[in-house]
Amino acid sequence: MTSNPKSRAPRASGFFLKPLDIITVLANISGSLLILALVVLITADVAGRNLLGQPISGVPEMVSLSIVAIVFLQAPQALRAGRFTRSDGLIEVLRKRSKTLTQALETAFDLVGLTVLAAILYAHWPIMIRAWERNDFVGAVGDFTAPTWPVKAMLALGAALLALQFLARIIRRWEGEDDESI
After folding, report:
1. 2 within domain boundaries
2. Structural domain contains residue 5
3. In this predicted structure, what is the pLDDT of residue 10?
4. Runs of H (alpha helix) within 84-148
5. Is residue 4 in a domain?
6. How far apart are CA 99 and CA 105, in angstroms?
7. 148 DSSP assignment
8. 182 near 99, Cβ under 8 Å?
């Protein structure tokens, strides 16, 4: 009986990585749907201004809140798919010379990302809870108001997913997954 070197036994990390990737894709889809909703909203606002002389109340507030949510909902999938912005000139030179050194440096970068996102979550969590408890809102009372906690919750979710994707990159790298897929 011959064994296929490409076929491996399932790893314990798969129980962590598979659900993480599914949730990350769902967050990305949510961000895309939010973009679509903004396109419709802005189009309706422009049409209302030009055709009826009446804009839709709260569009600037909804757009500013949505942009933050979109970025944090879509960043984890961008990292997972290898589309996160970075300068990799040094990494490419090192990759040709020493795979181990490249893995160590990439892991250090991922640990920095994980640490920064953990700090963001640590600082942001009480702000999100306070927004929920106090029912913070943006807009003008009597014209348009929107609660801020949903966007703050999306920021927390996105930051947590992004931190976990940095951790997943480390796991995948040291389990021997192809560098191009990390």
Report:
1. no
2. no
3. 61
4. 89-97, 99-134
5. no
6. 10
7. S
8. no
Higher pLDDT, residue 179 or 67? 67
Integer Cα distance of 182 and 19 in angstroms: 17
Mention every residue, 6+ apart, whose C-beta is less than 8 A from residue 34: 66, 69, 70, 73
Average pLDDT, the chain: 90
Whether the Cβ atoms of residue 128 and residue 40 lie closer than 8 Å to each other: no
Among residues of the chain, what percentage have pLDDT more than 70? 91
Tell me whether residue 85 is in a domain. yes
Token digits for 82? 């290898």
pLDDT tens digit sequence for 2-24: 455 555 556 767 889 999 999 99
Other Cβ atoms closer than 10 A to 170 = 19
Number of domains in the chain: 1
Tokens of 62: 């909804």
DSSP state of 69: H
CB 63 within 8 A of CB 38: yes
Residues of the domain holding 127:
14-181
d(C-alpha 63, C-alpha 78), whole Å: 22
- Per-residue pLDDT at 122 exceeds 50: yes
pLDDT of residue 178: 56
